[in-house]
Amino acid sequence: MARQVQVNYQEKPCYKIILNHSFDGFLDALEQEGIARDRKICIVTDTNVAKLYLNEVTEICKNAFPVVEYFVFDAGESSKNMATVEKLYEYLIKRHFDRKDLLLALGGGVVGDLTGFAAATYLRGIDFIQMPTTLLSQVDSSIGGKTGVDFLQYKNMVGAFYMPRMVYINIHSLLSLPNLQFASGMGEIIKHGLIRDASYYQWLKDHQAAIQAHDEDILEEMVYGSCLIKKNVVETDPKEQGIRAYLNFGHTIGHAIEKMSDFSLYHGQCVAIGMHSGAYLSFKRGHITKDQYEDILAMIQGFDLPVSVSDYDAGEILANTKSDKKMVGDKIKFIVLEKIGQAAIDMTFSDQELLEGIQVLLTDE
Ligand SMILES: O=C(O)C(=O)C[C@@H](O)[C@H](O)[C@H](O)COP(=O)(O)O
Fold this sequence. Notes:
Elements (H helix, E strand, L loop, with lengths): L3 E6 L2 E9 L5 H7 L7 E7 H16 L4 E7 L8 H13 L7 E6 L1 H13 L5 E6 L2 H7 L4 E6 L2 E8 L4 E5 L8 H18 L1 H9 L1 H5 L3 H21 L14 H10 L6 H18 L5 H13 L6 E2 L3 H9 L11 E6 L2 E5 L4 H9 L2 E2 L2
Parallel strand pairs: 2-9, 3-4, 3-5, 5-6, 6-9, 10-13
Antiparallel strand pairs: 1-2, 7-8, 11-12
Helix pairs in contact: 3-4, 5-6, 5-9, 6-7, 6-9, 6-11, 10-11, 10-13, 11-12, 11-14, 13-14
Bound molecules: the ligand O=C(O)C(=O)C[C@@H](O)[C@H](O)[C@H](O)COP(=O)(O)O.
């Protein structure tokens, strides 16, 4: 086995992130973590991931579990809702899944968030394992126990903090990712460096060519580094009472653009665009220099991510930003960079300043 990261919850060991280069080590990982196998398992995945990995993972599970079921839903953010969760509940009820049984989330962020939420609520909570297959889910959404679905016009509006029993990462699955999805994950990875670790940010710059060539050892190093940063943040503040909000850098405006694009832009692309605003406003507040601001833009673009949008109205973006669930009264909980590698919460931005931060994103094309 390659590397492992222990994640604690409320200062007690809770689950491990296990990095590997195939799905083959999954049974050994279950054994190592003392996860019982004399129970039913339901693999939850989407139509895209099912084509790639469902057979392989099902065969592996059949060597360990007496009953292996699978539930496949349509790929995409449009499935991340209560209707899909209800279908999953029904599927589990019909197959007599009880409280000692297990769910396995095989896929990206939508699969992990939705399966985790179903696990948190079905029979008041059954075990689940995260098996993230996208870059974004490996470094971000599978870690920290945020589970949930979108509701009405709000992203991740209904959910629960609910910890997985294990996160099993197969780095090799990154090699089959479409370029846009790989870039989307890089958005969160760049964010990790910017908010928490300047040396990791520099490392990403220094290894850009190898990362983009998908050198598997370098990818492992990068995923491991990001997992460590995320682990550190969620251990310090598991329920987002304080510094966990730093992980929202780029998300406040990013979520608004994601929704306005009708989810045609990937999450990480929208975070990249949102980070542009965050970096710009950090520069305007005098926290970072113009050179650093420009360096951040170049870094984001260097990893094939957008820093602007066309055909959007600044006022509309602001209005959508203000409908984010993270508003405190009429104030936006905005995340800025105090310097490269250190974020801060700032609730003092006026609408005028925010509009200026949005304006820099808009192009005429
Ligand atoms: O784990 C967290 O906390 C994060 O905020 C990580 C984000 O990158 C992630 O997109 C998260 O799902 C956003 O959560 P939300 O509470 O802002 O919806």
